[in-house]
Write a structure and sequence with these properties.
Elements (H helix, E strand, L loop, with lengths): L13 H4 L12 E10 L3 H12 L4 E4 L8 H4 L3 E2 L7 H8 L1 H13 L9 E5 L5 H13 L4 E4 L1 H8 L6 E5 L3 E2 L2 H15 L2 E3 L4 E7 L2 E6 L2 E10 L10 H4 L3 E10 L16 E3 L7 E4 L5 E6 L8 H14 L8 E11 L6 E6 L2 E5 L5 H16 L11 E2 L10 H18 L4
Length: 420
């Protein structure tokens, strides 16, 4: 049992507390015109706005809350290279040429942010062959990946919970809210107009382009980048119906005692497990342990999730028993049926990228840049990711109960030690 846990209401958001001072951008009032309207102030939208403004476009970005308020500023901060499906599966689906372009693009995303090693351990012996095979396949298709036997994974983590693993040398980590704010400031310096507390209420085509209606006015644009991912809701219903939302939840300690720090992740490589319902964790620069996993279908953290994640941390590192948890938060993210991000042309002059499936820090930044190049005239067939129309998910009204049932099934497989 994990005792002395604070209630979920008492926990603070680590990234907000350590994000430093922030000068808000004023809401949009009245009517404004621009070449490109960007809706959404997360990694995708900010990266697109920065690239467009740097190329001389007149860009206006609107954000319903504050910059990085949702998943971009509330994720675990791990930079994960590559794609979630196995590389050979991507090539089988998209063909050799397109598949390799997608894989090359995805492996290089981490290089554009903050590379550092990342460990992916497996917790069951019967899954060791799968981990070894995946490491070999990733290495064959451009990943900087090495297989770790039981001794090496224990040395890297100082945990006896794992039997094998692999290390990805292109990975890394950031303070995600600071990173989002840095992108915002860079975009503003490049000439983009940014507006917080400005919710896009509707999008409509006009004779000369597009109109975005907001609570206090409207934004007229020749083209639009819709960068709202799992929070698109009624702005573009057909896009919303192509996604399933899940919640990631995180906990963090205060800086760990000096005597305890060498006993946990001494190499300081972040960890993401190979299980279906994975836990991921790292020691951030101030010495706090940050651990995350699947949460409830809500942006609010609940007590059961707090207990489950704290218990998972102690299972992996018994020396954490009795260490207090000060921080906790949750964020909603979008996933797709094929667990791949999708780039869509929703209509002439309207683009989006969605469904990062837990790999959004690096992928969102780079796909935001890709959207900017499409706006600037790049041919869709020359892009590293295919540009497609969204497809409504089968049995869409049952998507959330279905996702909950799948998560329960995966948890059972993980407990039984079945390969992922």
């Amino acid at each position: 049992m994990i005792s002395n846990l604070p209630s979920s209401q008492e926990l603070k958001v680590l990234w907000e507390e350590t994000g430093g001072p922030w000068a808000d951008f004023a809401p949009l009032a009245g009517e404004a015109r621009c070449d490109v309207a960007v809706i959404g102030g997360g990694f995708t939208g900010l990266s697109a706005a920065l690239r467009l403004a740097s190329e001389g476009a007149n860009v206006s970005l609107i954000e319903a809350d504050t910059i990085g308020f949702r998943a971009s500023g509330r994720n675990g901060g791990q930079i994960v290279p590559g794609l979630k499906p196995r590389a050979d599966s991507v090539i089988a689906t998209f063909g050799v040429e397109r598949g390799r372009r997608m894989l090359d693009f995805a492996h290089q995303t981490a290089d554009r942010t903050a590379p550092a090693p990342r460990t992916r351990p497996g917790s069951s012996r019967c899954g060791s062959g799968c981990v070894r095979q995946r490491a070999q396949i990733n290495k064959q298709h451009g990943g900087k990946v090495d297989f770790l036997d039981e001794g090496r994974v224990a040395a890297l983590t100082r945990s006896n919970f794992y039997h094998v693993g692999m290390i990805e040398r292109r990975a890394g980590a950031v303070q995600p809210l600071k990173f989002a704010r840095g992108l915002a400031l860079a975009a503003a310096v490049a000439g983009a107009s940014l507006h917080e507390k400005t919710r896009g209420l509707s999008i409509a085509q006009t004779g000369s382009g597009w109109q975005v209606r907001t609570g206090a006015g409207r934004l007229l644009a020749d083209r639009i980048i819709l960068a709202t991912d799992g929070h698109t809701d009624s702005l573009w219903p057909h896009l919303t119906q192509s996604l399933v939302n899940v919640t990631n939840a995180q906990l963090a300690t205060d800086p760990l005692p000096a005597a305890l720090l060498p006993q946990i992740l001494p190499a300081r490589a972040g960890v993401s497990e190979t299980r279906k319902i994975t836990y991921y964790y790292r020691i951030e620069p101030a010495g706090r342990l940050v651990i995350g996993g699947r949460g409830p279908y809500s942006d609010r953290l609940d007590g059961a999730t707090v207990r489950r994640i704290a218990r998972a941390a102690v299972d992996r590192f018994p020396q954490l028993r009795g260490v207090p948890w000060k921080y906790g938060w949750a964020c909603r993210v979008a996933t797709t049926m094929d667990v791949l991000p999708h780039v869509h042309a929703l209509a002439p002059g309207l683009w989006t990228a969605v469904g990062y499936c837990g790999r959004g820090v690096a992928l969102a930044v780079c796909l935001g840049e890709m959207l900017a190049t499409l706006v600037l005239g790049r041919r869709e067939k020359d892009s590293p990711f295919p540009v497609t129309p969204p497809r409504r998910m089968p049995f869409y009204p049952q998507r959330q109960p279905g996702a909950a049932a799948a998560i329960t099934c995966y948890r059972i497989k993980d407990r039984l030690g079945l390969p992922s």
